[in-house]
Amino acid sequence: MQVGSSTVTVIDTVLDVADAEADRLGFWAAQARRLDWDTDFTQVLDYTDAPFARWFADGRLNVAHNCIDRHVAAGHGDRIAIHWEGEPGDHRTISYADLQADVSRAANALTTLGLVAGDRVAIYLPMIPEAIIAMLACARLGVLHTVVFGGFAAHALRDRINDAAAKLVITSDGQYRRGVAAALKPAVDEALSTAPEESTVAHVLVVRRTGGDVAWTHDRDLWWHDVMATAAPQHTPEAFPAEQPLFLLYTSGTTGKPKGIVHTCGGYLTQAAYTHQVIFDLKPATDVFWCTADIGWVTGHTYAVYGPLSNGATQVIYEGTPEFPDQHRHFEIIEKYGVTIYYTAPTLIRTFMKWGAEVPDAHDLTSLRLLGSVGEPINPEAWRWYRQVIGADTLPVVDTWWQTETGAAMISPLPGIAAAKPGAAMTPLPGISAMIVDDDGNRIAPADGSAEPVTGYLVVDQPWPAMARGIWGDRQRFIDTYWSRFAEQGWYFAGDGARYDADGDIWVLGRVDDVMNVAGHRISTAEVESALVGHPAVAEAAVVGAADEQTGQRICAFVVVAKSYSDWSDVDDAIIGELRTRVAAEISPIAKPRMVHVVPELPKTRSGKIMRRLLRDVAEGRELGDTSTLVDPSVFEAIRTGR
Ligand code: PRX
Questions:
Q1: Worst-scoring range by mean pLDDT, 125-129, 310-314, 441-445?
Q2: What pLDDT, on the 0 to 100 scale, is given for residue 628?
Q3: Given this chain, do its domains 7-321+400-493 and 521-641 carry the same CATH topology?
Q4: 207 Cα to the center of ligand 1, angstroms
Q5: Which residue from 273, 377, 392, 422 could staple onto 383, CB 3.0 to 4.6 Å apart?
Q6: Fold of 7-321+400-493
């Protein structure tokens, strides 16, 4: 099914696609100049140290000024920046002028605590306004934030704090999840408890959210409200070079160690603002934008903080889960605030499908005019349901493909310009150059309909402003991870498989490496494996993502029990339970394997490589593929007939 051109009026921005192709750098310079620069740049791109790009490098700007102060100066101080809705039903309305005062106070408070440009702050908070205020206060000071998703456990938090050598952690006493006030600060205390003498963390700032009891370390812990109460609500932002790092965001790769992806001020903000405006056809004075992602993920950074605020938009931030107090919550919020643009993940759309159309049908959703999807491939059925049931069968749906490393959206239909197809990310945005290639780097031809479409690798063949500037503290790993597959051509390999349809439009099919995508959350197989082998009962572990109707993928683990731990066939369910709990405790409940199979051996090639493809076949209940390269094909019989 092809949906005709949308009814959305064509975007205000002068977006000349031909210009973007003929003069890519000129196009990006024009996008960058939509921001306020304290010192204009003279060079758009310096790529002499490829793949480490420098965009607008001699320009200077302040990101927080661009997200707040310039809107207040333009007379929009009274415009609502954030309609915040707490899970228990409390709410706060924050104007751009309020945000300016609070971010200024927070910036002054951080300065009093000794933070200076270049320092790192870990933010471990639920979706409360203080999370955004803290991020912007860091940005205002040239301090790098690293936001750690509130669902991550102490162990994962510790790794990130240590890798970033953070000086300050900002957290809360607790958070509301499904109506329960769950403690959050104990995870910080635990993360900081090992080798405190070596810790770089001088202070922990604690936001009071749930009012629960908290253990207190004197001289280290401070209440957010105390430091804010004595801080002045005025602060003059300093302009920083465009290439000043803005934040680190840790993401899973193909090894157990998470990577601190580095983004910088000028290029990142340029693409965040540009994409947020054109993809969502934003009308800042009238739209109410809602991106449902948590700020712990890149989507929350780019489309719940920097994109909307740099464009002076009004947005909704919701603290809790979609099913609290019941399945109507999101639709009630859309109705209550008159949300016009709703941006969410396929996994939630599939959950809504399961709950049934009668839930959204009970609400007046006529304020909506545009729908978006992100985080994983959206299956055509979910796309159609989204458009039909939430979008009254008329709204444009934009399926946006991008990654933590790309910083902002890269491939997406533009409402009002391109027609959309259910399940396709369509074409690279103006200014972006990406294509699908085969093993040798040859561009794949569009499907001609006569045969199965060919799947290839998605590559970005030209630098883009919001591209990652590296992996924190590991220059070589950045090159090896993303730029070695097509090193000769100098292309960025995204790790995704994709195909062209007969019109040459792009369909992203998902990861082709050992990264899983569970309900839109990126988890590496290696990270889960390393948590499993940390258990004394486990000698070896292999983890694969198996297709799942609702969550896209589910985690299946295969473990070999240590000899000292009795015969594998005797292992009881208690240990399997322990293993699952261990992964949840070490990484996060979202990484908990759905199934743990105890097997006598792992299937390996002669060179010792685990054959995950075969394990995926087993996990998905398929006939086994080619087993001829296995050292011992009989291993599989045991695996299949095992538990
Ligand atoms: O596999 C792709 C999938 O999510 C991966 C990136 O994950 P992360 O860095 O956590 O960022 C998620 C939010 C941008 C990609 O490599 N992905 C993301 N968006 C899409 C997608 N797959 C298909 N279609 C999408 N629209």
A1: 441-445
A2: 62
A3: no
A4: 31
A5: 422
A6: Rossmann fold (3.40.50)
